[in-house]
Amino acid sequence: MKEFELINRYFKGRGITRRDVDLGIGDDCALVSVPENCQLAVTTDTLVSGVHFFADIPPRALGHRVLAVNLSDLAAMGAEPTWVSLALTLPDVDLPWLEAFTDGLHEIAEYYNVQIIGGDTTQGPLTITVCAKGIIPKGKALTRGGAKVGDWIFVTGPLGDAALAIEARKRGIALTPENKKALEQRFFYPTPRVAAGQVLRGMATAAIDISDGLVADIGHVLRQSRVNAVIHADKVPVSQALKDTLPEAERWPYVLAYGDDYELLFTVPDAQKSALQAKLKQYGVDAACIGQILPGEGKLEVLLRGQKLALPAKGYEHFTA
C-alpha cells in the first residue's frame, strides 16, 4: 500500500464530520471556520517509539493515547476540542497494526467530537506528531499565570498509576492481575479531562495538565504566577492499585514526580471552592484539595502530615542526562 492509498483507506472519509470544517483531508490545507468571539487554541505533541511509549504497545491503545495527551493540553486551557491533524512516520505498512491504531484514534476522536482534518505520512522510525485545535470564548482561557495568594490547589484524580505501570514493567514489580489491568488501563488509555476544563473557565485562576509530574508541573504555575505553594502529600489522591502495591514510603516518587497521569491541577479562590467542587461532581470528577498558594516567588514545599518531605527528582525532561 502506497502513501495516498493509506490515507484514503484509513483517514479520508472516516470519523465524524463537523459543520465548521469547510475543507478537510485531500487538499494542500484544511479550511475551518472559527466561531465569532472565540479564540483558537493550538497544541502540538510528538511521540517517539522507545521514548514516549513501549515499542510493543497495543496499536489501538497507541491510537487513543496520541490524541488523548493533546486533548489534555486543550482541557488545561478550558478549550473545546474541535480539529486535529496527524503526522505519522512508519517503518513500513503493517495493515493489521494500522487498522488497530486508526480504530483507537477514531474512537477517541468521535467521543470528543473532533474531526481529523489533515496531516502527513512518511517512512522512517515510528514517530507520531499530533496538532490539536480547540476553541475558547475570547478572554476565558485558563493559563498557568493566574494563581493568587490564598487560592486552593486541586487535582482532578489519582496520581502515580501510569508511573507504576511503567516501572512494574521495567523493574519487574509484582502486580496482581487485577491491579496490572487497572494500571495499564490508566497508562494506555488516559482520560483527558475535557469537560472539567470547560467547567473551570471563569472559576479557576490557573490550570495545567500533569504530564511531567506534579512537582514539575506545579512549578510552572508557581513561576508564571510568581507565588509559592504548600502541598500536603497525604492529601494527593492515589488509586487502590497503587496502595496495594507500594508501601507509603515508596510511593512519593511515583505520585509526585513521574507524570503521564494527564489529570488537571488547578487553583481556585476560597469563594469558589465549594461551588466548583460540586459542579465538577456533576461530571463525575471528585477533585481533591491538596494545598494552597502562598506569598513568594516560585518555591514549593511538600508536607507529609505536617512534616517536611524531601522533594523527589523532577519529572522527565528531554536533552537531560
From TrEMBL:
Pathway field: Cofactor biosynthesis; thiamine diphosphate biosynthesis; thiamine diphosphate from thiamine phosphate: step 1/1
Domain of life of the native organism: Bacteria
Chain residues that bind Mg(2+) 5: 212
EC identifiers of the protein: 2.7.4.16
Domain PurM-like N-terminal intervals: 26-136
Binding site for Mg(2+) 2: 45, 73
Record key words, sorted: ATP-binding, Kinase, Magnesium, Metal-binding, Nucleotide-binding, Thiamine biosynthesis, Transferase
Known catalytic reactions: thiamine phosphate + ATP = thiamine diphosphate + ADP
UniProt: Mg(2+) 4 binding residues: 28, 43, 73
Binding site for Mg(2+) 1: 44-45, 120
Transmembrane parts of this sequence: none
Record domain PurM-like C-terminal: where: 148-297
GO MF entry, a single one: thiamine-phosphate kinase activity
Binding site for substrate: 52, 260, 316
Residues annotated to bind Mg(2+) 3: 28, 73, 209
Positions annotated to bind ATP: 119-120, 144, 211
InterPro entries: PurM-like_C_dom, PurM-like_C_sf, PurM-like_N, PurM-like_N_sf, ThiL-like
Enzyme class: transferase
Record-linked HAMAP family: TMP_kinase (MF_02128)
Family: Belongs to the thiamine-monophosphate kinase family.
PANTHER family: THIAMINE-MONOPHOSPHATE KINASE
Biological role stated in the UniProt entry: Catalyzes the ATP-dependent phosphorylation of thiamine-monophosphate (TMP) to form thiamine-pyrophosphate (TPP), the active form of vitamin B1.
Note: Reaction mechanism of ThiL seems to utilize a direct, inline transfer of the gamma-phosphate of ATP to TMP rather than a phosphorylated enzyme intermediate.
Protein name in the entry: Thiamine-monophosphate kinase
